Amino acid sequence: MTPFDEMLRDDGGVRPPYERFHGWFQSQDPETLVAKAIDAEAFFRTTGITFAVYGQQEAAERLIPFDLVPRIIASREWSRLAAGIEQRVKALNAFLDDIYHDQEIIKAGKVPARLIEGNEAFLPQMVGFRPPGGVYTHIIGTDIVRVGEDQFYVLEDNARTPSGVSYMIENRETMMRMFPELFAQNRVRPVETYPNHLRRSLAAVAPPACDGVPTIAVLTPGIHNSAYYEHAFLADQMGVELVEGSDLKAIDGRIAMRTTQGYKPIDILYRRVDDAFLDPEVFRDDSILGVAGIMKVYKEGGITIANAPGTGIADDKAIYSYMPDIVEFYTGQPALLENVPTWRCAEADSLQYVLEHLEELVVKEVHGSGGYGMLVGPAASKEERDTFAAKLKERPSNYIAQPTLALSTVPILMDRGLAPRHVDLRPFVLVSDQVRIIPGGLTRVALKQGSLVVNSSQGGGTKDTWVLED
Amino acid sequence: MALLGRTANGLFWMHRYIERAENMARLIDAGLRLSMTNLSSGPEEWQSVLVSAGVEAAYVAKYQEFDAPRIIDFLLRDLDNPSSVLSAIETARQNGRMVRTALTRETWEALNNAWIALKRRLSQPIRDTELPGILDLVKRVTAEIRGAFHGTMLRNEIFDFCNLGTFVERADNTARILDVKYWVLLPTHSSVGSSLDNFQWGSILRSVSAHRAYTWEYDAEYRAVDIIDFLIFNRRMPRSLVYCYLCIQDSLTYLARAYGTEHACHETAAAIGARLAGTDVHGVIDGGLHEFLEALIVDNNRLAREIASSYSFYV
Fold first, then answer.
1. Number of domains in chain B
2. What is the pTM for the complete model shown?
3. Residue whose C-alpha is closest to residue A322's, from A336, A333, A308, A335
4. Are residues B133 and B24 part of one domain?
5. Which of A47, A228, A259 lies nearest to residue B312, judging by beta carbons?
6. Fewer beta carbons under 10 A from the terminal one: N or C of chain A?
7. Over the stretch B37-52, which tens digit does the pLDDT of each residue have?
8. pLDDT value at position A1?
């Protein structure tokens, strides 16, 4: 079956959102475009938009390949997605509030208690505590895939510390620099307002201890972290401090940063450090990336932590398969966006099915991320499948399985013209006094022909993502 | 907006290392000139370049013998030498990444491009014939960083911490260059006026890129007393000790005004400034040039430590 192509229909016609782009493209000299692609790469390198790939020594800093062909979404398509995303992030926050309080959803029998209790992502320290503004997950990246004209699935809810938003903005910046004429011909909704929205969104959930204009800071693990560029970028664009654990200290019920004029309290900390490293007094005691005592300050109203500790329980892959029920339970409406059908290997029937159909399924670790530790059945050898089957039988509850989706394709620019490649989409959503969704997101593209793995750590690239105005 | 102590530290060291990379290129350039004259026998001159650069001990720890190509490699691209051009630009950029949010996009990109260019050119051993081109490249890319920095940065405390790094490093460098060669500048020196002296003096000026400027400020004739005056007391010479200390005191004064407090570093800088203002070239020669420079290097280092502690660079 040919996958759905977002630019070209099977009959060779151009889908409406791409009409203007396609017309422009036809009039371009292919050699100039290839030269522009090289310019774009130089631009990324100069800017220092790099990321580190863990486990690869020589490539300490690598560029994520950028493709010049934009991924274009019609206004109507976007409205539908946005409504579904908004519903979903509201449900995620309601779920978190419930899970850390009365657990009505468990009492109602919609989600099994064992998935919460035994789950590392569930933090007992958060039980009974409500973060400022009642918001748990402030920044979310909802991974969406498309398989047909009207068929979208949510692949994952990244509710902990989603990354990639700097690429969304820099990709647009690059496109506007390379092809200003395209933006004159197409009415593309802006994405560069994201840092302003983020700042406003964070400022709206100041802790009780804050008096006056809230002080915001971004907490980074440091320059060796794979997403350091993004941490610096966001702090810079918001005009707030970029801090490391060693800059911070709990003083008089506040978390303060060491400045050239002594310690100054922070009101809201956008942390890009995982829960486990956040507070050595409460979580991992060998962590030097966090702040000793921050959890105590947090629970006494001295600081807002975004995202709240313990939000991982909401985007856990074991919970994922319950999302349609979760959405309906809290919003009273059926989910607007569909889940990918998922087999929970913890359930004996499902495990049996998965083992019998390994060659057509994608099997994922419940706690894995970044495309590590997964099996793409159709692409794996018999040997790889057998090895994986053994792991599955050993710890079935560690895995879920999904059908191999025929992800939609968007063309990429090759030396000899256009070639279709599979894509996904990560829109970025901000939750605080209101839900703010930036029109577009990060489109990741598998650069290898036929490949379905779009992760940048596995050789994926990115594209500028356009949402058109009507 | 508050400035983190760690950020001030990063800015200070970023600028020290940019300055160091550039100074290293100048020192190598001067060494290259001297080694091309048949008046001097190569390795000793290169050895004195190592001493000026403050890395003689590190070199000796790695290699036993003084050998021109090895010394050049050590100064240019050896990562075991923290002051080599390659190490310095690497450290400068590492600090720059850390303080990325305090820099303008232009300044950061100039620094990043300098790093990309130097890393590429210095990844392989350098042939003799390539050396002049590479030294030019170092000077050019560091000049581009300075240009972007001066053209785009706000004149706030960030700017001052950067300046402090630049001028503390530069004062140290100028004082060292003079100190290594102080004996050829003394009136008691045996071969006064010989052509070797002329080369030696010319090389001192060249190592601070000031052989042309000297002839504008004095007259074409190299005279030891004028060279000392130029590099220590000339207020128009951007690498003289007096000039460095005027800039250091300026930045510290701005910081004191912005923050409303003075610290130990203000006292130290004022004392060094007063010492420079209270004497002249003859006073320095009479009192001992070497002793004067040695004391200045020590006090300059103390100032750097005091700046770090006054402004919470570290926990």
1. 2
2. 0.91
3. A335
4. yes
5. A259
6. N
7. 766 555 778 888 898 8
8. 65
